[in-house]
Structures are given as C-alpha cells and as structure tokens.
C-alpha cells in the first residue's frame, strides 16, 4: 500500500543511531494506536451493551403487557378493549424484541470481534516483542562490554573463547529479535486501517439489516392500528382535561364555603349548630393511663351510630364499639392539659375526651340522661387476668371493658380468687417498703466509725469489698429505666402469681395512702447481678446477685409493670430463707426486661458449667500427670534393680582364662570380662529381636 513508511529490515544488523531513531518514531506511533484503539473499543462496547440492554428491556416490556389481563386492580373493572389493545402492542413489541436480539448477535460478530482481536492479539504482540528486543539489546551490550575488557595474555584463551561465544549468541539473538520486531511494526500500519474499518463496516451492515427486518414486520396494518390508538389517546386526554376543570371548580367552591370552619374556635353566629342531626362524627382525644399517676391522650375518630358510640382508627375499614350511650351521663369537666373536655360515665366505666369545638358534645348529651354523676378517680385493676372466671354482667358488652380507659370505683373480689389461696402467697399485714433504702450507706457509716479519724470514707457510697471491675468481664450489659414501686416479703416463689399478687397489694396500698412518688433508677442487667444505679450520681443503690433471683415476670395486661423475687441465703429463726418480691414500672416493655434477665441467667448457667468442666479437666490432667510420674519412677526403680543384679552376677562369676598365641593362659581383667559379657548379651538380644 503506497504512502506507508517502513522500517528497513536490512539495516537491523548495523543497528545504527538513525535506525534506532526511526524505531522510536514507530514505537510512539504504536503507543498512540494502542491508546486510540482502547478508546474506540470502549465506545463500541457501550453500543453493544446498550443494544443488549435494549433487547432485554423490550422483551420484558412485552412480557409485562401480556400479563396485564391477569392483574386485578382495586379501582378498575374488566376492560376487554384495554386488554386486547395491550395484547396487540405486546405482539408488536415481541417482534421488535426478536429484531433487537438479532442485531445484538450481528454486532457481537461483525463489530466487537475484529476490534477485540486487534486489541488482544496484535497490540499485545507488539508489546511482547518490544520487551524481548529490549532484553536482547541489553544482553548484547553486556557481551560487547565483557569482550572489550579481555586481557591480552595468552593464558586467557579459554575465557576469551567463552566471551566470543557469548558475543556471537547475543548478537544473533538481537538481530533476529530486531527483524521480527521491525516486521511486526511494519505490519501494524496495515492492521491499523483494517481494525478501524472492519468494525465500522460490520456495525453499518448490522443496522441496515435491522432496519430492513423492522420495515418488513411493521406493515400497513400496524400503521393503521397505531393511528387508531393515537386517536383514542387524544380522546382520553380531552376527557381528562374536562374532569380536571370540574374538580378545580369544586375545590374553589369548597374553599369559599369552608373558610370560616378553618378557625379552631368558629363564631357560633356565623356557623350555626345543627341540632337536628341523627349522627355525629369527628376526631376526639381520649385519655389513657400510662402509669400509676401519669396519662396520655390519643386522637381517634369517633361517630355515633344508633345508641352506640363507635371509634375507628386511621386505616381501619370499619369501626368498633366503645360503649352504649343510651344509659350514660355526660358532663363537662376541667383538665389541666386539655381544653373542651367532657366525661361520659356509665355504671362500670367512664371516658374522658378533649374535643375540638366543631364536635359539639351537647349533641351526645341530648341523647342521654342530664343527671350528672360524680367524677370517679380511675384505679387500675390487676384482677383482669381472672376476667374469664367472673360472672358476666347482664346487658353489657365486653367491648366496653376492653377499652383503653380504666374501670371506675371499687370492684368486688371474684370468688375465683379465693381458690388461689392468696394467703399462701403473701402473708396478711406484711409491711411494704415504698422507697429504696440502700444498705451501702449504713455499711459505710459503720466502717467510718470503726476506722476512726485515720481512714477516709468512700464519698460515692460504694463498699471497698466490691471490685470496680465487677461487671466489666460480663458479656451482657443492658440498661433500662425503672421506677421502684415497692417490695414486700412473700411466702414462696413457686409461680408468677406471687408477683401478680404483690403488684396488686403494692399498687392498692399506694392508692389508699396517696403515695405517688417513685424513685427512678437505671436497672443494669449483667451476667453476675442486677444493679439499681442512681441516674445522676451513678452510685449503685441496690445490688441483687443473679443467683438469688429465682423468679421474674411482667404483668399480663399492663406490660410496663414487672417484678422479680429475690431469695437470700440467710434464714430466720426457723431456718426458712427470706423471700422478697420487688415491683417496678419501666418506660419500656416489661417483657423485654424479663427476657434480658432470663438471657443473663442462661449465660451465667452456661459459664458456670464451662467453669466446672474446665476444673474437672484440669483435675483429670493433673491425675494423669501424677500417674505418669509414678510409672516413670517405677520403671526407673526396675531398671536400677536389673542393673544391680547384673553387676552382682558379673562379680560372682569366676575369672575366665584365655589362651595366648604361645600356648599359655592369659588372665582377663574384670573390665574385659564385662565387655565380653556385654557382647554376648548384645548378640543374644539381636538374635531374639530377629
């Protein structure tokens, strides 16, 4: 091909500077070709990847259109016209997907294969020959350098021959490598044009074939179909525009009509109250008990239906019965944290609501008796776990009892409770402790008196006998917020009923004596103990060894209440262990705290079992070592006895005589005799082993 420069192969042997300079130009050209080919390869690879993605996406679209008739939309009825139209589209798109798949195959064969071959084979061959030529050139220079430094003395003929042989081999290798390198660089000028033109030719031929295949599939029938679909889309668009105009006008009318109702306190003269409504609905805030003396307000949607008050949570399909309001009384009450409060009171429950003025409680009051009952302070009931044992009240639905508010007044004890023999759980007239009395302070005071003036007391209330790193080695550390309600001594710790009965008595005693103060602490659960820590000073108020905690449970209905039973090692006069039940209220779910305590006891149990197993193994190892030592001593004693008996036998044996060369007898020494005996014994031993 004219116009292409070549490297002179015939000048490779001389290896002149001009040839090397021309070689450098060709190497720069090869580097530029490699860089440009890499960029072109990336661009064509993006085309190939995009075509594959387009083919896969087209096939997925066709598949989804075919599955439209299997879909069940909540607001769409069976539209046969829409389904058949999408099926026609799915058929067309499926044919187009096949065309795209064919185009992807043609691009892989006609476009990507040639440029990949040029990149992976030809350009890498140039780089390999360049490295080989550089190595051969360096070897030739080193051989020439050695030859130049040869000595002129004749005694170096052997060395001279080796050097000349090295020069011959390196020069031949350089010449051959250089010729092949020049040939590859000259050929690269032709391959460069082929690698640029052949992929582009394959790309254009594949696109032309794709367009021809598409034009054959998209006939006049499909063009008429697409025209009809376009007309239908325009009709739907005009219908949608008309509907949007109607809804916008409705929005404007509603905004003007309800402008006065946006105010939280509308003027009754401008917005008159309709007292002829048979049904009222709206949002109310109802108060729920969250603790012993604390409460929270929940916003729910309420409505009247017949003589019932119904509530419906957001997202629910239907409402639930709250109470029957035909036999209730309604009265306005004052609340410190809410406005517009009123109270609905029945014979076994009462509800307290805070409303927006738009929901007029007088509408409900018109349907009930106007006689008001006194407000009853709600007290928590802890006997609901026996609700199934109580006789049902005639004419009252159980839904009112399951509501979020507390039952009013005092409830009579169920006859089923007597079966439980509560006296067997908690002794009558047992004193209750309502506050935490840390024994640490008393111990510190006693230590300070015993130490006198020369000893400092611990200002943080921690005893010196407890190490600071007591819980650092524990693998479980969980911290909870707990409020101490009280503790009292119980008779046994056989079941969770002990904790439930203790909860009932402590809360009843708090309500009777108006004790509302609770000590808040941090409850730390570890594998060794339970700690009550002061949140502000971080002083340990109480510490319960985990091994002494024999029972723990949370309340079945009020999940914030939990307790545990502690059994101490010391006994009273009669020798019976002291069993104390502690009751707490937490911000979290009490079951989580009980689960944490249970996990800690499991970990402690497994740790104790592992410790015992390790100690047992150590004892077994020591016994084995002692046994080995005894065996070694016994073997040593036997060996010594055997050696002693052999020596005694050797000395008691008569001195052997030997005949000399001159016919005379020679007297052997004891050492020679022992050596001869050892030789004989060695031979006998070897024969026995053989």
TrEMBL record:
InterPro entries: AH/BAR_dom_sf, BAR_dom, DP13A/B, PH-like_dom_sf, PH_DP13A/B, PTB/PI_dom, PTB_APPL. Residues 377-407, 445-472, 610-638, 651-690 are annotated as: Disordered. It is a peripheral membrane protein. Residues 480-631 form the PID domain. One of its GO terms (cellular component) is endosome membrane. Keywords: Cell cycle, Cell projection, Cytoplasm, Cytoplasmic vesicle, Endosome, Membrane, Nucleus. One of its GO terms (biological process) is signaling. The lineage of its organism: Eukaryota, Metazoa, Chordata, Craniata, Vertebrata. This is Adaptor protein, phosphotyrosine interaction, PH domain and leucine zipper containing 1. The keyword Secreted does not apply. It is found in: Cell projection; Cytoplasmic vesicle; Endosome membrane; Nucleus. It comes from Hucho hucho. Residues 680-690 have a biased composition (Basic and acidic residues).
């Amino acid at each position: 091909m004219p116009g292409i420069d070549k490297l002179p192969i015939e000048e490779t042997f001389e290896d002149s500077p001009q040839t090397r300079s021309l070689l450098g130009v060709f190497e720069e050209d090869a580097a530029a070709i490699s860089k440009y080919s890499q960029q072109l390869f990336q661009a064509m690879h993006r085309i190939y990847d995009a075509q594959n993605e387009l083919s896969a996406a087209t096939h997925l679209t066709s598949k989804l259109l075919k599955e439209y008739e299997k879909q069940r939309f909540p607001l769409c009825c069976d539209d046969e016209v829409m389904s058949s139209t999408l099926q026609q589209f799915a058929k067309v798109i499926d044919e187009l997907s096949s065309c795209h798949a064919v185009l992807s195959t043609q691009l892989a064969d006609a476009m990507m294969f040639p440029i990949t071959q040029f990149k992976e084979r030809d350009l890498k061959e140039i780089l390999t020959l360049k490295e080989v030529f550089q190595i051969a050139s360096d070897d030739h220079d080193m051989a020439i350098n050695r030859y130049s430094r040869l000595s002129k003395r004749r005694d170096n003929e052997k060395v001279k021959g080796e050097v000349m042989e090295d020069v011959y081999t390196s020069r031949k290798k350089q010449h051959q490598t250089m010729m092949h390198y020049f040939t590859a660089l000259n050929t690269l000028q032709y391959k460069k044009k082929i690698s640029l033109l052949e992929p582009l030719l394959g790309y254009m031929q594949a696109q032309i074939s794709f367009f021809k295949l598409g034009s054959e599939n998209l006939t006049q029938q499909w063009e008429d179909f697409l025209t009809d679909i376009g007309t239908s889309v325009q009709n739907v668009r005009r219908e949608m525009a008309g509907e949007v105009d109607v809804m916008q006008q409705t929005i404007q009318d509603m905004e003007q009509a309800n402008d006065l109702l946006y105010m939280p306190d509308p003027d009754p003269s401008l917005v008159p109250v309709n007292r002829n409504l048979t049904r009222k609905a709206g949002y109310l805030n109802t108060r729920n008990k969250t603790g012993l003396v604390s409460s929270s307000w929940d916003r729910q949607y309420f409505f009247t239906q017949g003589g019932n008050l119904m509530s419906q949570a957001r997202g629910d399909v239907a409402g639930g019965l709250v109470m029957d309001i035909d036999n209730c009384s309604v009265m306005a009450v004052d609340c410190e944290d809410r406005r517009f409060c009123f109270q609905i009171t029945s014979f076994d429950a009462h509800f307290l609501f805070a409303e927006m003025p738009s929901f007029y409680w007088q509408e409900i009051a018109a349907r009930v008796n106007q006689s008001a009952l006194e407000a009853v302070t709600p007290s928590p009931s802890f006997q609901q776990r026996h609700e199934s044992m109580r006789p049902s009240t005639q004419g009252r639905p159980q839904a009112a009892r399951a509501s979020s508010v507390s039952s009013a007044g005092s409830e009579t004890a169920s006859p089923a409770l007597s079966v439980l023999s509560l006296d067997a759980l908690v002794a009558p007239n047992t004193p209750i402790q309502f506050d935490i009395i840390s024994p640490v302070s008393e111990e510190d005071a006693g230590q300070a008196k015993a130490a006198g003036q020369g000893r400092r007391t611990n200002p943080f209330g921690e005893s010196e006998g407890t190490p600071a790193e007591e819980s650092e080695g524990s693998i479980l550390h969980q911290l909870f917020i707990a409020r101490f309600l009280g503790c009292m001594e119980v008779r046994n710790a056989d079941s969770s009923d002990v904790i439930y009965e203790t909860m009932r008595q402590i809360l009843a005693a708090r309500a009777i004596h108006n004790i509302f103060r609770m000590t808040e602490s941090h409850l730390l659960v570890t594998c060794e103990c339970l700690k009550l820590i002061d949140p502000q000073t971080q002083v340990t108020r109480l510490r319960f060894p985990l091994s002494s905690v024999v029972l723990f449970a949370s309340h079945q209905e009020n999940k914030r209440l939990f307790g545990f039973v502690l059994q101490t090692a010391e006994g009273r006069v009669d020798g019976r262990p002291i069993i104390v039940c502690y009751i707490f209220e937490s911000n979290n779910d009490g079951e989580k705290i009980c689960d944490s305590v249970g996990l800690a006891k499991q970990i402690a149990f497994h740790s104790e079992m592992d410790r015992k197993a390790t100690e047992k193994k150590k004892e077994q190892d020591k016994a084995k070592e002692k046994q080995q030592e005894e065996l070694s001593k016994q073997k040593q004693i036997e060996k010594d006895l055997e050696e002693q008996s052999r020596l005694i036998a050797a000395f008691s044996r008569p001195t052997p005589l030997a005949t000399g060369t001159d016919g005379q007898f020679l007297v052997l020494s004891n050492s020679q005799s022992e050596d001869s005996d050892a030789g004989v014994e060695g031979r006998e031993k070897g024969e026995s082993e053989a």
